[in-house]
Amino acid sequence: MASVLVTGGAGYVGAHAAKALARGGITPVVFDNLSTGHRHNIRFGPFEEGDIRDTPRLAGVMQSHAVTAVLHFAASIEVANGEQSPAAFQDNNVAGTQSVLEAMRISGVKQLVFSSTAAVYGAPKYTPIDERHPCNPVNVYGETKREAERRIHDFAAAHGVQYVCLRYFNAAGADLDGEIGEEHEPETHLIPNALKAAAGRGGPMKLYGGDYDTPDGSCVRDYVHVHDLAAAHLAALAALEGGARALACNLGSGRGHSVREVLDAVETVTGRPVPFEIAPRRAGDVPVLTADPSFARRALGFTGTHSALEAIVRDAARFHAARWGMALPGEAGRS
Ligand code: UDP
Questions:
Q1: DSSP string of 33-48?
Q2: Does the pLDDT of residue 96 top 60, yes or no?
Q3: With contact defined as beta carbons under 8 Å apart, do 296 and 302 qualify?
């Protein structure tokens, strides 16, 4: 059975991708330093604890497991932390990616799928955003991911490596079987925070900015189901097998939903009100961010089947409700 290295495989999207690989008959070898990932997410293949900046260790793992490709998720991702600690972000996200590339060179691994982000685009000049949109990141997180993409591009051209950069919009939802889900600490993302408020844990949620130039005054985002993201990584590996050399693809549903619409969906799914208060705008938030996913559809067959808002919220709610002991409508008595 083929083996693929999954850096950051103990994290949110990485763990879902590891599960998708295992389901697809590929052994996911998780490489993670457990700085933010969770040991309980590592259950689909072997685990190698280590830091991506440790090139010899990374190369050793690639060789001992005879991996044929790398899915590179390991990164620092909290936007606010990047503003406070740019050097740490550059080190982990840029130098870390360079180290992954160098380990691939040492080990002769020729295929890479990189976990990138819509943050590489910065403030949208138009929406929906396609891949021709200029890349002018407006925060350190986006800068580091953009720089990592550049390094991958240059390295790939020089060393005959094939790659796909997947630019996620708003990753959300949870595993369809409820095995894995979003567990950031502290949690900053909208859907888990809204569910927390609905469950009565930690008081009302803050809705950042009620006066944007959008239909209901709250920000509009493109939420994409983590299951669909995971599937796109397998499709990217297949595209590389099929001869793709250098791709960057947006992964989004192509639909925008406001924060208020998300809160409505959480109320519908949980059958509970979501207590919230309007708070000042959050630094760096743009009013509207939506993807044009048509290139991903053509290049990867990406359809975003599970990315309807209510399906995303339902799967996230199931995951969190099980951990919090919160009953959901229609689930009473289920074993
Ligand atoms: N948001 C909010 N309250 C929260 C978390 C997020 O109002 O507790 C808003 C945020 O301002 C943005 C949207 O929800 O407009 C999505 O934010 P999230 O942090 O989930 O993802 P991002 O768009 O920052 O990647």
A1: --SSS-GGG--SS-EE
A2: yes
A3: yes
Going by CA atoms, what residue is nearest to atom 18 of ligand 1? 189
Residues 6+ apart with CB under 8 A from 64: none
Residue 72's nearest CA partner among 89, 94, 91, 56 is: 94
Predicted pLDDT at 332:
54
pLDDT tens digits for range 16-69 = 999 999 999 999 999 999 999 999 999 999 999 999 999 999 999 999 999 999
Strands 220-221 and 257-258: antiparallel
Does the Cβ of 138 fall within 6 Å of ligand 1? no
Kindly tell me if the per-residue pLDDT of 74 is higher than 90: yes
Pick the atom of ligand 1 nearest to 79's CA. 24
Does the Cβ of 188 fall within 6 Å of ligand 1?
yes
Fold of 3-172+223-251: Rossmann fold (3.40.50)
What is the rounded average pLDDT for all residues in the chain? 96
For residue 188, how far is its CA from the centre of ligand 1 (angstroms)? 7
CATH of domain 190-221+254-324: 3.90.25.10
pLDDT at 335: 40
pLDDT digits (tens, 9 = 90+) for 261-273: 999 999 999 999 9
Q: How far is the CA of 33 from the centre of ligand 1 (A)?
A: 27
Nearest CA to ligand 1 atom 4: 190
d(CA 263, CA 267): 6
Q: How far apart are CA 197 and CA 14, in angstroms?
A: 26
The set of residues, in sequence order, having a beta carbon less than 8 Å from that of 51 and lying 6+ positions away, is 33, 57
Report the distance separating Cα 49 and Cα 58, nearest Å: 10
Which atom of ligand 1 is found nearest the CA of 172?
A: 20
Helix, strand, coil percent content, the chain, rounded in steps of 5: 40, 20, 40
| Residue 333 reports pLDDT greater than 80 | no
CA of residue 208 to ligand 1 center, whole Å: 7
Domain boundaries, the chain: 3-172+223-251, 190-221+254-324
Report the pLDDT value the prediction gives residue 284, as an integer from 0 to 100: 84
